[in-house]
Amino acid sequence: MLRFSFLTALLFLTLSSPARADKDNPLMLPPEGHVLINLSATETRKLVQDQLIASLRIEKEDVDVKKVQDDVNKAMKAAIEASKKYDSVKVSTGGYNVYKNEQPIPDPKTGQYTGKVKTTWRASQTLDMESKDSASMLELTGQIQELGFAMSNLMYTLSPEKAEAVRDELMVIALKKLRAKAEKASDALGKKGFELTDVNLDTSGGYPPPMPYARSGMEKVMMSAQADAMAAPVADAGESSLSLTVSARALLKP
Fold first, then answer.
1. Residue 173, class by beta-carbon neighbours within 10 Å (0-12 exposed, 13-18 middle, 19+ buried)?
2. Angle at Cα 185 formed by Cα 183 and Cα 186, nearest 5°?
3. DSSP state of 30
Protein backbone atom coordinates (compact mmCIF):
# COMPACT_ATOMS: atom_id res chain seq x y z
CA MET A 1 0.00 0.00 0.00
CA LEU A 2 1.06 3.54 -0.68
CA ARG A 3 1.51 5.76 2.37
CA PHE A 4 1.03 9.51 2.14
CA SER A 5 3.20 11.77 4.23
CA PHE A 6 3.29 15.54 4.18
CA LEU A 7 6.96 15.31 5.11
CA THR A 8 7.68 13.72 1.73
CA ALA A 9 5.47 16.08 -0.27
CA LEU A 10 7.61 18.98 -1.47
CA LEU A 11 5.83 22.27 -0.79
CA PHE A 12 7.01 25.11 -2.96
CA LEU A 13 5.79 28.41 -4.31
CA THR A 14 5.27 28.96 -8.00
CA LEU A 15 2.81 30.55 -10.42
CA SER A 16 -0.77 29.28 -10.62
CA SER A 17 -1.67 26.62 -13.19
CA PRO A 18 -0.92 27.05 -15.94
CA ALA A 19 2.08 28.70 -14.26
CA ARG A 20 4.14 31.02 -16.41
CA ALA A 21 6.97 33.29 -15.58
CA ASP A 22 6.75 36.85 -16.86
CA LYS A 23 8.39 40.16 -16.16
CA ASP A 24 5.71 41.10 -13.61
CA ASN A 25 6.21 37.87 -11.68
CA PRO A 26 9.91 36.89 -11.99
CA LEU A 27 9.77 34.63 -8.90
CA MET A 28 6.83 32.64 -10.35
CA LEU A 29 4.73 33.21 -7.24
CA PRO A 30 1.26 31.64 -7.19
CA PRO A 31 -1.84 33.76 -6.78
CA GLU A 32 -2.56 34.72 -3.22
CA GLY A 33 -3.99 31.84 -1.19
CA HIS A 34 -2.88 29.16 -3.67
CA VAL A 35 -0.29 26.49 -2.86
CA LEU A 36 1.54 24.12 -5.19
CA ILE A 37 2.87 20.75 -4.05
CA ASN A 38 4.67 17.92 -5.83
CA LEU A 39 3.05 14.50 -5.49
CA SER A 40 3.78 11.02 -6.77
CA ALA A 41 2.20 7.59 -6.58
CA THR A 42 3.66 4.20 -7.48
CA GLU A 43 1.73 1.04 -8.21
CA THR A 44 3.48 -2.36 -8.36
CA ARG A 45 2.21 -5.75 -9.33
CA LYS A 46 3.79 -9.20 -9.42
CA LEU A 47 2.97 -11.21 -12.52
CA VAL A 48 3.53 -14.83 -13.48
CA GLN A 49 5.97 -14.98 -16.38
CA ASP A 50 4.17 -16.17 -19.50
CA GLN A 51 6.85 -16.50 -22.18
CA LEU A 52 9.64 -19.06 -22.44
CA ILE A 53 12.77 -18.20 -24.42
CA ALA A 54 15.70 -20.40 -25.38
CA SER A 55 18.95 -20.14 -27.28
CA LEU A 56 20.81 -23.17 -28.57
CA ARG A 57 24.00 -23.45 -30.59
CA ILE A 58 25.55 -25.99 -32.90
CA GLU A 59 29.34 -26.22 -32.93
CA LYS A 60 31.54 -28.21 -35.29
CA GLU A 61 35.31 -28.58 -35.76
CA ASP A 62 37.28 -30.13 -38.61
CA VAL A 63 40.47 -29.69 -40.60
CA ASP A 64 38.35 -29.08 -43.70
CA VAL A 65 36.72 -25.65 -43.68
CA LYS A 66 34.13 -26.76 -46.23
CA LYS A 67 33.11 -29.80 -44.20
CA VAL A 68 32.80 -27.90 -40.92
CA GLN A 69 30.42 -25.40 -42.52
CA ASP A 70 28.49 -28.17 -44.26
CA ASP A 71 28.01 -29.93 -40.91
CA VAL A 72 26.65 -26.75 -39.31
CA ASN A 73 24.39 -26.06 -42.28
CA LYS A 74 22.92 -29.57 -42.21
CA ALA A 75 22.32 -29.45 -38.46
CA MET A 76 20.65 -26.06 -38.70
CA LYS A 77 18.45 -27.22 -41.58
CA ALA A 78 17.35 -30.23 -39.57
CA ALA A 79 16.51 -28.01 -36.57
CA ILE A 80 14.47 -25.62 -38.72
CA GLU A 81 12.60 -28.54 -40.26
CA ALA A 82 11.79 -29.92 -36.81
CA SER A 83 10.49 -26.54 -35.67
CA LYS A 84 7.97 -26.33 -38.53
CA LYS A 85 5.81 -28.86 -36.70
CA TYR A 86 5.31 -26.37 -33.87
CA ASP A 87 3.28 -23.37 -35.02
CA SER A 88 3.19 -21.90 -31.52
CA VAL A 89 6.99 -21.58 -31.34
CA LYS A 90 8.75 -18.65 -32.98
CA VAL A 91 12.18 -19.66 -34.28
CA SER A 92 14.96 -17.48 -35.68
CA THR A 93 18.59 -18.09 -36.53
CA GLY A 94 21.36 -16.16 -34.81
CA GLY A 95 25.03 -15.46 -35.47
CA TYR A 96 27.04 -17.74 -37.73
CA ASN A 97 30.78 -17.79 -37.01
CA VAL A 98 33.66 -19.59 -38.71
CA TYR A 99 37.24 -19.18 -37.59
CA LYS A 100 40.64 -20.83 -37.90
CA ASN A 101 42.33 -22.46 -34.94
CA GLU A 102 46.09 -23.02 -35.10
CA GLN A 103 47.71 -25.15 -32.42
CA PRO A 104 51.52 -25.57 -32.19
CA ILE A 105 52.72 -29.16 -32.59
CA PRO A 106 55.57 -30.22 -30.26
CA ASP A 107 58.25 -32.69 -31.30
CA PRO A 108 57.17 -36.10 -29.93
CA LYS A 109 60.70 -36.89 -28.79
CA THR A 110 61.92 -33.62 -27.33
CA GLY A 111 58.65 -31.94 -26.53
CA GLN A 112 60.01 -28.76 -28.10
CA TYR A 113 57.94 -26.72 -30.50
CA THR A 114 59.37 -26.74 -34.02
CA GLY A 115 57.18 -24.12 -35.59
CA LYS A 116 54.76 -26.63 -37.06
CA VAL A 117 51.07 -26.04 -36.38
CA LYS A 118 47.90 -28.05 -36.67
CA THR A 119 45.18 -26.06 -38.37
CA THR A 120 41.51 -26.77 -37.73
CA TRP A 121 38.36 -24.84 -38.45
CA ARG A 122 35.54 -24.20 -36.03
CA ALA A 123 32.04 -23.14 -36.98
CA SER A 124 29.01 -22.35 -34.85
CA GLN A 125 25.53 -20.93 -35.27
CA THR A 126 22.80 -20.13 -32.78
CA LEU A 127 19.08 -20.84 -32.88
CA ASP A 128 16.72 -18.64 -30.86
CA MET A 129 13.20 -19.65 -29.86
CA GLU A 130 10.33 -18.13 -27.92
CA SER A 131 6.80 -19.23 -27.14
CA LYS A 132 3.95 -18.91 -24.66
CA ASP A 133 3.26 -22.62 -25.19
CA SER A 134 5.90 -23.96 -22.84
CA ALA A 135 5.02 -27.64 -23.37
CA SER A 136 5.60 -27.44 -27.13
CA MET A 137 8.66 -25.26 -26.63
CA LEU A 138 10.34 -27.72 -24.25
CA GLU A 139 9.48 -30.67 -26.45
CA LEU A 140 11.01 -28.99 -29.50
CA THR A 141 14.06 -27.92 -27.49
CA GLY A 142 14.68 -31.53 -26.51
CA GLN A 143 14.46 -32.64 -30.14
CA ILE A 144 16.96 -30.00 -31.20
CA GLN A 145 19.34 -31.04 -28.45
CA GLU A 146 19.19 -34.55 -29.87
CA LEU A 147 20.54 -33.11 -33.13
CA GLY A 148 23.73 -32.09 -31.33
CA PHE A 149 22.80 -28.58 -30.28
CA ALA A 150 23.98 -27.32 -26.89
CA MET A 151 21.79 -25.18 -24.66
CA SER A 152 23.08 -21.63 -24.18
CA ASN A 153 20.07 -20.16 -22.43
CA LEU A 154 16.63 -21.22 -21.23
CA MET A 155 14.46 -18.94 -19.12
CA TYR A 156 11.01 -17.56 -18.53
CA THR A 157 10.19 -13.90 -18.99
CA LEU A 158 7.21 -11.56 -19.11
CA SER A 159 5.94 -11.01 -22.63
CA PRO A 160 5.84 -7.39 -23.90
CA GLU A 161 2.13 -7.77 -24.66
CA LYS A 162 1.24 -8.74 -21.10
CA ALA A 163 3.52 -6.08 -19.63
CA GLU A 164 1.93 -3.33 -21.74
CA ALA A 165 -1.62 -4.37 -20.87
CA VAL A 166 -0.85 -4.46 -17.15
CA ARG A 167 1.03 -1.18 -17.31
CA ASP A 168 -2.15 0.54 -18.54
CA GLU A 169 -4.02 -0.88 -15.54
CA LEU A 170 -1.30 0.35 -13.19
CA MET A 171 -1.52 3.83 -14.70
CA VAL A 172 -5.25 4.11 -13.95
CA ILE A 173 -4.77 2.93 -10.36
CA ALA A 174 -1.78 5.23 -9.77
CA LEU A 175 -3.68 8.24 -11.11
CA LYS A 176 -6.57 7.55 -8.73
CA LYS A 177 -4.13 7.35 -5.82
CA LEU A 178 -2.54 10.60 -6.93
CA ARG A 179 -5.90 12.36 -6.88
CA ALA A 180 -6.60 10.92 -3.44
CA LYS A 181 -3.30 12.33 -2.19
CA ALA A 182 -4.09 15.75 -3.64
CA GLU A 183 -7.51 15.72 -1.99
CA LYS A 184 -6.00 14.83 1.40
CA ALA A 185 -3.44 17.61 1.05
CA SER A 186 -6.16 20.08 0.14
CA ASP A 187 -8.24 19.13 3.19
CA ALA A 188 -5.26 19.19 5.54
CA LEU A 189 -4.24 22.67 4.43
CA GLY A 190 -7.78 24.01 4.60
CA LYS A 191 -8.14 24.49 0.84
CA LYS A 192 -11.39 24.09 -1.03
CA GLY A 193 -10.17 22.29 -4.13
CA PHE A 194 -7.23 21.31 -6.29
CA GLU A 195 -6.11 20.96 -9.87
CA LEU A 196 -3.43 18.52 -11.10
CA THR A 197 -0.87 19.88 -13.55
CA ASP A 198 2.26 18.57 -15.29
CA VAL A 199 1.30 14.91 -14.92
CA ASN A 200 4.16 12.56 -15.83
CA LEU A 201 4.40 8.79 -16.18
CA ASP A 202 7.68 7.18 -15.22
CA THR A 203 8.30 4.41 -17.75
CA SER A 204 12.09 4.71 -17.74
CA GLY A 205 12.39 1.17 -16.42
CA GLY A 206 10.87 -0.28 -19.59
CA TYR A 207 9.94 -3.93 -19.62
CA PRO A 208 11.28 -6.15 -16.86
CA PRO A 209 14.34 -8.16 -17.83
CA PRO A 210 14.07 -11.86 -18.39
CA MET A 211 14.16 -13.83 -15.14
CA PRO A 212 15.48 -17.35 -14.71
CA TYR A 213 12.74 -19.88 -14.20
CA ALA A 214 11.98 -20.65 -10.59
CA ARG A 215 13.02 -24.31 -10.47
CA SER A 216 15.71 -25.35 -12.89
CA GLY A 217 15.89 -28.69 -14.62
CA MET A 218 19.17 -27.90 -16.32
CA GLU A 219 21.18 -30.11 -13.98
CA LYS A 220 19.11 -33.09 -15.04
CA VAL A 221 19.46 -32.09 -18.69
CA MET A 222 23.25 -31.77 -18.46
CA MET A 223 23.56 -35.16 -16.77
CA SER A 224 21.35 -36.87 -19.32
CA ALA A 225 23.32 -35.32 -22.19
CA GLN A 226 25.72 -38.25 -21.87
CA ALA A 227 22.96 -40.80 -22.31
CA ASP A 228 21.81 -42.20 -25.64
CA ALA A 229 18.36 -40.61 -25.31
CA MET A 230 18.14 -37.16 -23.79
CA ALA A 231 15.27 -36.05 -21.63
CA ALA A 232 13.55 -32.82 -22.65
CA PRO A 233 14.49 -29.73 -20.62
CA VAL A 234 12.37 -28.81 -17.60
CA ALA A 235 11.24 -25.28 -16.74
CA ASP A 236 8.74 -23.66 -14.35
CA ALA A 237 7.60 -20.06 -14.60
CA GLY A 238 8.58 -17.55 -11.93
CA GLU A 239 7.32 -14.03 -11.26
CA SER A 240 8.27 -10.56 -12.47
CA SER A 241 7.52 -7.26 -10.72
CA LEU A 242 6.13 -4.46 -12.85
CA SER A 243 5.95 -0.90 -11.50
CA LEU A 244 4.66 2.42 -12.75
CA THR A 245 5.04 5.82 -11.08
CA VAL A 246 2.84 8.84 -11.74
CA SER A 247 3.96 12.31 -10.61
CA ALA A 248 2.27 15.68 -10.86
CA ARG A 249 1.96 19.12 -9.36
CA ALA A 250 -1.23 19.86 -7.44
CA LEU A 251 -2.49 23.43 -7.28
CA LEU A 252 -4.47 23.80 -4.07
CA LYS A 253 -7.13 26.48 -4.35
CA PRO A 254 -8.48 28.70 -1.53
1. middle
2. 65
3. P
Q: What long-range pairs does 28-36 form, CB within 8 A, spacing at least 24?
A: 30/251, 32/254, 33/253, 33/254, 34/251, 34/252, 34/253, 34/254, 35/11, 35/189, 35/191, 35/251, 35/252, 36/11, 36/12, 36/249, 36/250, 36/251, 36/252
- Which residues make beta-bridge pairs with 246? 41, 201
DSSP 203: -
Which residues does 47 contact at the CB level (< 8 Å), separation at least 6? 158, 162, 163, 166, 239, 240, 241, 242
In the chain, the largest separation of any two C-alpha atoms, in whole Å, equals 99
pTM equals 0.62
User: Which pLDDT tens digit goes with each residue over 11-42?
Assistant: 333 333 444 445 665 556 666 777 888 888 88
How many angstroms separate the Cα of 253 from the Cα of each of 2, 88, 218? 25, 56, 62
- What is the CATH code of the structural domain delimited by 51-157? 3.30.70.2970
Residues of the chain with CATH 3.30.70.2970: 51-157
